[in-house]
């Protein structure tokens, strides 16, 4: 497909990264992609690079060449490595100087062979609090606090300055174990940009209802990195193109259900999901058992002006719904992106918003609005003829 313009023609002041996943490998037509500057193909497993051999194939759901053909010329195509629960491969890679050099050498070989513009590192919980935190205590992962920046430093040396390196990083302060005041600037120095996962901010480790991608807790996530020395221009705000629900008990104040007690969501011994929380993307059919409740959530949902998030508590089923509407997405640009002067935004994930791609369009509208607000501010700062 031929395109008449490129990403550079957009003149966007902000990055816009879309994760494209193997689960939902769907791309809209070019008219909806004008704001997308980067695409991260998710995921390639981290352990494929822990080998002394020279791999001839790199397992991914698509090729960089095929992905590139769907987007505007100039769009950067990256390979995302890792993902939720993928920790063992990173741990082996980061353990020693030799293992780090082997891993980054193979990553560089993959980037060259596939023709990618760079990599996105999704070792989401170095230092602890990952999926296995009940089975492997955080005390056994303290060494990763220093090993994580060392791995990124080795990767930058090997890939060089011409290739992009980004990372997906935790959004909850309790999970920023590897991001200390001393390590965070070192981590940021190696990365072109950082995708702060400002979603799933309510998860199965919580015991009261809150917004999984709200304004207040998203600002807290961004501020945690700013406080540790990350330049605002390197930070990207995350958007979730999916909905979440949680089972609760009776809510003491049904009219104000934020903070309502949930049922026990996580096995206290093993940390396993007890099946009392879930979610689905806008692409997916609504599961039969949740369809009636979700219909009520779509019809009766409200926006929390204090904490900033769209929600619905289903009194009939005792089910808490938390998700972004188009309006909730647009509110985040002046309230977060503008307020903290962030470098961009990203979403998980592009195909998850099919077939209507309404949330993608809301993000694009927000970016265009940000440009207009920036121009207005610049115009107000220009001297008048009388001041010249």
UniProtKB/TrEMBL annotation:
Enzyme class: hydrolase
InterPro entries: Chitinase_II/V-like_cat (IPR011583), GH (IPR017853), Glyco_hydro18_cat (IPR001223), Glycosyl_Hydrlase_18 (IPR050314)
E.C. number(s) listed in UniProt: 3.2.1.14
Region called Disordered, residue ranges: 368-388
Domain annotation GH18: ranges: 14-370
A molecular function (GO) term: chitin binding
Extent of Basic and acidic residues compositional bias: 368-381
Gene Ontology CC terms, in alphabetical order: extracellular region
One of the GO BP terms on file: chitin catabolic process
PANTHER family: CHITINASE (PTHR11177:SF378)
Record protein name field: chitinase
Lineage of the species this protein comes from: Eukaryota, Fungi, Dikarya, Ascomycota, Pezizomycotina
